[in-house]
Amino acid sequence: MSTNKQSFGINYVDLDTWLHRLNGVTKFLLFITWITVVLTTFDLRIIVPLIMIGLYLLRATKVPFKAYKPLLIGTATVLSMNAVFMFLLAPNQGNELLGSTTVIMPIFGSYAITQETLFYLITVTLKYFSMFPIALVFVFTTHPTEFAASLNRIGLPYKIAYAVSLTLRYLPEVKSDFVNIMHAQQARGVDLSKNVPVFTRISNIAKILGPLIFSSLDRADEISNAMVLRGFGRAKSRTWFSEKVITRTDKLMMSGLLVIVILAITKRVVETSLFWYPFG
To answer: Which residues cross the membrane (predicted)?
Structure first.
């Protein structure tokens, strides 16, 4: 029986790029600004450039494409399925939002592919996808401890910031445990390939998730006990080993991000139409 080695993951990659050298606060604010802009617009004239800039930044991290290729494919697949379900549940949503109906291909009953619905689904799908590259950029270039220090620096209690740091650092361990348990179960004859029926495959996956959950709980208990023994949480504040100095470049970027947020919110408040539709 052959096994497929898992070679991908979502975790910090220690490289020397200009993105890695930015302060964690700057990268966190970049991420928040990006999400704010995306959530306040349905304008493809903004969304498409955001995707292009995001992919450029993702390439600038110098992380090999094969490291996030499965994530890219998975995200595109999920968003495509989401578009199909949106059409099945509300086939006339695009027509109602854009105020017109231009039938491209009738299907049956009230179901018909219209120019407005197609444009609506493409806009929504690209809108969601535009958040994917910047999320990877943030994770690939920001060390969990540095991120926790950044959150604490902008006012978040250090206990919550440290919990976020532990979560991010724990993700690679969960992935590693999943792969090890999967290989161990496959060695015992548990088949996860397409050669078995779907329900059998789901049942076999449960044989992996069970041990994974219990091992995760054991590790969480060990970490909790270790933190208690070291007196974590007794002090009102703490210092951070990985905290970076905010440089002039960071300050300039923060100023630019603030301007972008103000412009995005202002555009959303003053615009009369939620969607940009060039064919109306």
So the answer is: 28-58, 70-90, 118-140, 252-270
